Amino acid sequence: MEAKARALRLEERRKKLADLEAQLIEEESAARVTSEVEARVAAALASEAVQASLQRRLEEERAQLEAQVNAELERERQAAEAVERERRQALEAQKAELRKLEEDRQVAETAARERAEQEEQAEAARRFQELQAKMREAEERRRQEAAAEKERRAAKTTTAARPKFSFKLG
């Protein structure tokens, strides 16, 4: 039995050794493949064709990015122009409204001034008529007073028609 156990252990050792060798070979192969791939990639990247291709792609992407930036700037410029145009239109509308309000105010002032002048003229005409009426009344009173005075004088002269003497009779 001991011989069988030894043979089993020997067999297990050979298996482990074979597994370890296989694992070592696999790791070495993977390292060689990785190294070869890296070398080929480095060589490919260093080649002029790949460099030219990379340069071309970079230029295309740069041009595309520049076109996008220019398009965005153009959109922003147009938006700013639209905002400015709207601001100017609003300002013009506001100025027009202010002009209209000023014209309306001037029309109202003119109408009020004309009304005031008409009222003033009407008041002046009324006062003038009152003064004329007073003057007529005063003139009429003077005439009446003059006529009354004339009548009084005439009456006085008729009552006093007898001559007055400066001496006494009697």
UniProtKB/TrEMBL annotation:
Pfam families listed in its UniProt record: ARGLU
Biased composition, class Basic and acidic residues, residue ranges: 72-88, 100-154
Domain of life from the UniProt record: Eukaryota
Region of interest called Disordered, as start-end residue ranges on this chain: 68-88, 100-170
GO molecular function annotations of the record: cadherin binding
GO cellular component: mitochondrion; nucleoplasm
Protein name listed in UniProt: Uncharacterized protein
Organism of derivation: Micractinium conductrix
Lineage: Eukaryota, Viridiplantae, Chlorophyta, core chlorophytes, Trebouxiophyceae
